[in-house]
Amino acid sequence: MTATGLASRSSNQNLASALREAEERYIQANPKSAAIHGASKAAMPGGNTRTTLHYSPFPVCIRFAEGSRVIDVDGHSYVDFINEYTAGVLGHSEPAVKAALAQAIADGLTLGGPSIYEHELSAIISQRFSSMERLRFCNSGTEANLLALATARAVTGRPAVLVFDGAYHGSLLYFSHGASPLNMPIPFVTAPYNDAEAAVKAIERHAQDLAAVLVEPLQGGAGAIPGELAFMRALRDATRKHGIVFIMDEVMTSRLSPSGVQGRLGIKPDMTTLGKYVGGGMTIGAFGGRADIMERFDPAKPGALPHGGTFNNNVLAMAAGHAAFTKVLTPQAIDRMNAQGDDLRQRLDALAKTRSLAVQTTGLGSIFAIHFHRGTIRNGHDLDEGERGREREINDLKTLFQLDMMAQGHYINRRILGNLSLQTSAADLASFLGAFEEFLDNRAELIRATVP
């Protein structure tokens, strides 16, 4: 069963009525998801254990997935453009990974010792990402970033960390519209993203206290905003000058070339953090960097830094990650997927431009975001300025876009932050483009009224 229900032109008298109609259509189409969400509230606040997945009136509950599609409990089939927020780079039910997991399960779990997989996976990662001369595994991208920061503070003896407005480095390192009250109690210095001059000044001003500069080479949570080459080079030069550990958070972006965005830019950080897809779909994180930094974790050396973690080397993640890198994530496959993403963004932009609508994309390779915005987007401040005074209306327009696209069988989140997988086909992309074009035509007057 495919999700259906095209936007009605009669609903375009105003944004509120269009959104109300779309939400009613969504509620009627998803009774089982509604029931599951309602029951979940008895044990979980808001019926949710992962804030990113929540949206009103309730999220669809996914029952199974295969290839490039997910199917919900009400039987609707969607082309997946969420792909587990970039972790699902392999697509769904990849045979090589399924076979590796089956073998690992048959051999036994929670072994309490080194397995046959972890040294092979670490070697492959080190080969792909030359900045990771030595590395260690953990359980998530959040954990990888926390451990990288702790390492930098330990080896430099300095307390503070420079981050950038709009950054998301995990659930305890969240800097969108100010710091989260749940953030780790580290002295943070903030600077605007893609402003090389301001960043260098901040580094110079706080150099004596800075242990690290932590940066995403593409800010995902802020709206898929790529770091400009001059900006990234300025960070590399300034940190090297002052003996500050330069950390690239490539948890999301390492999929954007065989060697990540650092490979695309030709910039070698002191440390790199990974997560998401490198465990082949299993829970994983990794942090690594220069040998002289990471050798501090060698347990055979006096005064070694301790790093435990029951599931750091869990056999499922090690086996699945090894299968993914050796059998699926070839450089050619990664390059092909990212070329598809570049082409998709160009075609989306062209459709909006021919209609003179204030809709544009940002992103790099296989990661994209769609914005209702007129003007340049270099950082979150640009987006905030473009939305000032009409934040609610633009949020309503994003909601309408999500619901309209889902009604036509495309699984997209409310932030309109999407990505492709290796399983995304030319037909999937053509379908998405067709639905996007129909949205622009059906909702053109609402878009113009919201973003002149």
Helix content: 40-55%
For the secondary structure, the number of strands is 16
**Which sheet architecture does the biggest sheet show?**
7 strands, mixed
Query: Which strand order does the major sheet show?
Result: 4-12-11-10-7-5-6
The separation of the N and C termini measures 38 Å
* Average residue pLDDT: 96
Number of helices: 15
Radius of gyration, whole Å:
22 Å
User: In oligomeric terms, what are we looking at?
Assistant: single chain
Poorly predicted runs are none
- Residue fraction in strands: 15-25%
Overall 3D form: globular
The SS-based structural class is alpha/beta
Describe the fold and architecture.
The protein is of the alpha/beta class. It contains 15 helices and 16 strands. The protein has a seven-stranded mixed sheet with strand order 4-12-11-10-7-5-6, sandwiched between helices. It has a four-stranded mixed sheet with strand order 1-2-3-15. Strand 2 and strand 3 (77-80) form a beta hairpin. Helix 4 packs across helix 10 (315-328) and helix 11 runs parallel beside helix 14. It is globular, with a radius of gyration of 22 Å. The chain starts with 14 loop residues before the first helix and ends with a helix. The mean pLDDT is 96.
